[in-house]
């Protein structure tokens, strides 16, 4: 039975804090700066996946908030370094048509990253299919109006 439900995800998995601690230690003396920064990012990191989009927020002194509708998502990249694989984590980089080469947001700390990626792709495709359906309806309506005008002008 598959118990993965992205709509219930709110916080990153506790293994993300362990990953952050090791990454901070690898900076050597920089650990004094990096660990507090990463600790507060972990403690304040929140996710919300809804029917029409997703939001992510983090930060204590400088609050960062990102909201993306699924229709704006252009591509999703999944990457894992050796430590992330060890902790069962990955990073999902979500790119939009914002005109920047860097991703709009990076989702970290979700163990079932492949399932989340598949969920986001399905939502992204569903939003585009809905847009295409609305365009088709508009095109049909415009054709009906055109034909009605032609009949009126002919009589």
How would you characterize the overall build of this protein?
This protein has 155 residues and is an alpha+beta fold. It has a single domain (6-154), classed as Pleckstrin-homology domain (PH domain)/Phosphotyrosine-binding domain (PTB) (PH-domain like, Roll), CATH 2.30.29.30. The protein has helices spanning 15-25, 31-44, 82-87, 113-154; strands at 46-49, 53-58, 64-69, 73-79, 91-96, 105-108. The strands form two sheets. A three-stranded antiparallel sheet has the order 1-2-3. A hairpin with a 3-residue loop joins strand 1 (46-49) and strand 2. Helix 1 (15-25) packs antiparallel against helix 2. The protein is elongated. It starts with 14 loop residues before the first helix and ends with a helix.
């Amino acid at each position: 039975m598959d118990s993965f439900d992205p709509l219930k995800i709110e916080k990153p998995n506790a293994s993300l804090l362990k990953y952050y601690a090791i990454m901070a230690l690898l900076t050597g003396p920089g650990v004094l700066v990096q660990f507090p920064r990463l600790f507060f990012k972990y403690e304040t990191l929140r996710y919300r996946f809804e029917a029409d989009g997703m939001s992510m927020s983090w930060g204590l002194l400088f609050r960062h908030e990102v909201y993306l509708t699924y229709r704006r998502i252009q591509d999703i990249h999944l990457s894992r370094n050796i430590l992330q694989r060890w902790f069962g984590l990955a990073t999902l980089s979500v790119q939009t048509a914002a005109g920047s080469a860097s991703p709009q947001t990076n989702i970290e700390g979700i163990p079932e990253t492949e399932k989340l990626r598949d969920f986001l792709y399905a939502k992204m495709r569903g939003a585009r299919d809905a847009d295409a359906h609305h365009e088709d309806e508009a095109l049909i309506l415009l054709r009906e109006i055109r034909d009605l005008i032609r009949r009126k002008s002919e009589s």
